[in-house]
Amino acid sequence: MDELTEARVELARLENQEKQLIEQLYNVRTAVRAQRIKLDELIRRTHAPIDRLPNELLLRIIELSIHASVLAFPSCDVHRHRKLELACVSRHWRDMVLGFPRLWTTIRVSPTWSEPFVKAHVARSCQSPLDIEICAQDVTQSFRASMDILANCAQRWRSFTIRSGPFYGHCVLSVLLERMEHDVFPSLTHVSVRGVPSNSADKFSLFCSERCPHLRI
Hints:
alpha/beta; four-stranded parallel β-sheet; 4 strands; 52% helix
């Protein structure tokens, strides 16, 4: 076999090897794509470890998270923002947060809480005892509407807190106490009034009556 023939044979061998390698590379790339699709599907179907916890345990963790935030940031509207943050973690967490009545029992009457937001808390809390916080500065339509909503479930009030200060208007107290004048609070066990002028203290005598049989004095 002369040199030219040998060169042609070698070229043919190399071209055939190249073809085989290209086919092998194509097959490998196809397998890689298929494996990636399979892996993505497995990841989508696999819950995070925390989502594999029993619902009661997960809800307890969420509850403690909210409570810890309240302690860490007492001046912030934690109950308004923290629940929304936790509900955005995943669909499962959203279902847990929205469907667990005990997470919706703290209701605040303040400029940042709209009437629909208060109404949503009352509805989602089902028949659980309620902890009411008053942080209003002015007698607005939203304030009156929110108090009307809460007055309709006064039998569920567990605690009642007025967070006052120099900004707190006398008009707010007057309207608030007037709205509550004829309500009955059979479940109320705790009342906290802070920063209210001393000349207004006698107006809270409505809490020291048979209308609050379980109130702790």
